[in-house]
Structure formats: C-alpha cells, structure tokens
C-alpha cells in the first residue's frame, strides 16, 4: 500500500470542501459523484489534484462540479487554488473522504482552521479574476441535432454579438441535455474573440452562497462590484433561486445593471420562465424578456453521434453498431 500523504492541513482543506458539498448536494448526487473522489493538496495549497475513477466520470465532474469545487476551495483558503482533474491510477492509494455522521458535522476538527477566509486581513493582493469556464466545452465539441439546433444557433449569435439581440438568453430542458455545455461554449467563444472581456460562469447555488457571504462579511459593495461589472454572466439552474428573497433581489439588481451597460446574460433552468415556482414575478418577467429556447431529449441518431464523437475524443474507435446498441439500451433504461 502506498503511504498516505502527510499534509494534514492540505487534507483538511479538501475535507472541508467535500463536507460543504455533502450539505449542498442531494445525497444521491453526493454519493455518486463526490464521495468516491480522492485528492492531493500541494504543500503551499496552490493546487489541488482530484483523482477520478474513469474518463466518463472525469468529464462529468469537469462539466457539472469542477467550477463549484474550485470556488469552494478558493473561498475556504482565501486565495486562488488551481484545480486539476486526473484519472486515478490503480496502484495509487490516496486517503479517501468518508462522509461523517450528523453529530460529526459540527465538530471543529473538520474545519480548516489553518486557512481563514480573510487570510492576510486585507494585506494580501486580491486574487485574479476567475471566469470559471471549462475550456473543453465549446461549440466545436457540441454535437448538433434537431434537439438542440435552435438553442445552439441562439447561443452562437450571442457569442458573436453580445449585448444585442436575445438578451437575456434563457435555455431550459432536462438534466444532461447539454445546457451547461452551451453556456460554457458562449463564454469560451466570447473570450476567444475578445480576450479582455470579463465573463463569468457560475451555478445559481454559488450566487446564493455569495449573497450569504456578503451578509456575513458586510461586503455587499464588493459583491455588487463583482457582478455588476461583468460583460457576460452565464448562470446555471436559476430555479435554485426559489424562496430566497434576498438572493432574488440581488440578482434582479445585477440583472438590471448588466442590461443597462449592454452586458449579456445567459441562463439555464429545468423549466421555462413562467413555469418557475416561488420566484418573484418581476424576475420571471425579466427572464422572459429576451429569447427563451428549449433543448429536447436527443433522438437515437444524435445519441449515437455523441457516443462516437466521445470515443474519438478519447483516441478510441466505437463501431456504429456498438454505439446503436448502447444508445438504445440507455434509452430503454431511462
């Protein structure tokens, strides 16, 4: 057995991050995607390498959770922390996080006491702006089909001419249909064309967390400066704003400020704007004021194309008949 890392403080940073995720995510999501992860933290906390069991899970973690994990690490440490995802080697044995019992969650031993959020008491230079975009999620790597053609076309228009038509762009659909891929593609294309543009991708839960922190630290001026100064805001799953009045108020203010300066807003949700529940009517009205497009479940041929493209991206070949078998089987089980 390989010796476990001795960097206990670094391990504490990772454990604190995972513990927060265990509270934020539904139990099934946490147990499936986060609990099996292992990590190594650099001695100077500059980088956290997270190991994932296989390529499929690595791609899913990168697309769905990497931005949130990276943001949590930065918040907990108080300085930027580079996040690297890597495939776990079978011979490597890294200390694994075990979800604590409820009684352990309040134990101060779990908190990274060596890493205060406000490290340096303002003396340290502010961290560089992070757009939290996944560079692998582009228009080129997105398989186009009937299910997503309209949404893709609208997203490409936004990326090519931000701040004009289709503002805001509201994309809705079920889980796993490519909404997140599209919003990252918009951001990556914009920054490719305009490297100096200030774009940000976040999940709605991160916005909620930022509002809570602004309350705790009395830093709403800094909060507004961060969000109101963007050229492009990409935000996933706005349905999570339900029943959070102050969050909705702050998002409404940010929304108005961004539109006033001709910045673009792209949002995703699991339902169309007027189908959202427990969201203020004025906010729903803003969501519905631009262009709303749906992403539908892909047809069989599109699922086959996605499988074949994914295999090629991994330098592997998947015979068409195998791809058809897998696509049909997955559809039946779903």
Can you walk me through this structure?
This protein folds into three domains: 8-100, 2-Layer Sandwich (GMP Synthetase, Chain A, domain 3); 149-294, 3-Layer(aba) Sandwich (Rossmann fold); 300-333, no CATH class. It is 44% helix and 12% strand. The protein contains twelve helices and eight strands. It has helices at residues 8-24, 27-34, 55-64, 66-77, 149-160, 179-193, 204-217, 220-228, 245-260, 281-287, 300-313, 320-333, and strands at residues 38-41, 47-52, 82-87, 169-172, 199-203, 232-236, 264-269, 291-294. It has a five-stranded parallel sheet with strand order 5-6-7-4-8, sandwiched between helices. A three-stranded mixed sheet has the order 1-2-3. Strand 1 (38-41) and strand 2 form a beta hairpin. Helix 1 packs antiparallel against helix 2 (27-34), helix 5 (149-160) packs parallel to helix 6 (179-193) and helix 11 packs across helix 12. The longest helix has 17 residues, at 8-24. The protein is globular, with a radius of gyration of 21 Å.
* Strand residue percentage: 5-15%
The total beta strand count reads 8
Shape field: globular
Question: Largest beta sheet: what is the strand line-up?
Answer: 5-6-7-4-8
* CATH fold topology of the largest domain: Rossmann fold
Q: Structural class from helices and strands?
A: alpha/beta
Helix content: 40-55%
CATH architecture of the largest domain: 3-Layer(aba) Sandwich
Please report the first level of CATH classification, the CATH class of the largest domain: Alpha Beta
Mean pLDDT: 80
- Low-confidence stretches are 1-6, 90-127
Report the order of strands and helices: HHEEHHEHEHEHHEHEHEHH
How many DSSP H or I helices?
A: 12
**CATH H-tier superfamily of the largest domain:** P-loop containing nucleotide triphosphate hydrolases
Radius of gyration: 21 Å
Please give the largest β-sheet.
5 strands, parallel
The total number of structural domains is: 3
């Amino acid at each position: 057995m390989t010796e476990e890392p001795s960097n206990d403080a670094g391990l504490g940073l990772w454990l604190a991050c995972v513990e927060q995720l265990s509270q934020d995510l539904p139990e099934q999501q946490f147990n499936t995607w986060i609990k099996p992860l292992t990590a190594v933290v650099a001695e100077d906390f500059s980088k956290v390498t997270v190991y994932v069991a296989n390529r499929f899970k690595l791609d899913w973690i990168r697309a769905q959770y990497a931005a949130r994990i990276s943001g949590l690490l930065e918040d907990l440490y108080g300085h930027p922390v580079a996040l690297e995802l890597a495939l776990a080697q079978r011979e490597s044995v890294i200390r694994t996080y075990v979800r604590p019992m409820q009684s352990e969650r309040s134990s101060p031993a779990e908190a990274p006491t060596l890493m205060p959020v406000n490290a340096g008491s303002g003396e340290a230079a502010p961290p560089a702006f992070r757009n939290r975009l996944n560079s692998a999620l582009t228009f080129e790597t997105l398989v186009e089909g009937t299910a997503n053609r309209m949404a893709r076309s609208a997203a490409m228009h936004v990326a090519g001419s931000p701040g004009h038509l289709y503002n805001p762009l509201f994309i809705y659909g079920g889980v796993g249909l490519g909404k997140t891929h599209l919003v990252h593609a918009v951001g990556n294309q914009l920054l490719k064309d305009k490297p100096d543009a200030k774009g940000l991708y976040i999940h709605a839960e991160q916005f909620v967390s930022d509002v809570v922190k602004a309350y705790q630290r009395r830093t709403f001026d800094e909060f507004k400066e961060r969000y109101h100064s963007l050229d492009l805001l990409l935000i996933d799953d706005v349905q999570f704003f339900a029943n959070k009045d102050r969050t909705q108020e702050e998002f409404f203010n940010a929304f108005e400020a961004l539109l006033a300066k001709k910045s673009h807003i792209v949002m995703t949700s699991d339902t169309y704007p007027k189908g959202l529940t427990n969201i203020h009517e004025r906010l729903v009205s803003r969501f519905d004021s631009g262009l709303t497009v749906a992403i539908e479940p892909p047809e069989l041929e599109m699922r086959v194309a996605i499988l074949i493209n994914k295999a090629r991206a991994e330098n592997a070949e998947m015979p068409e008949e195998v791809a058809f078998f897998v696509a049909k089987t997955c559809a039946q089980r779903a």
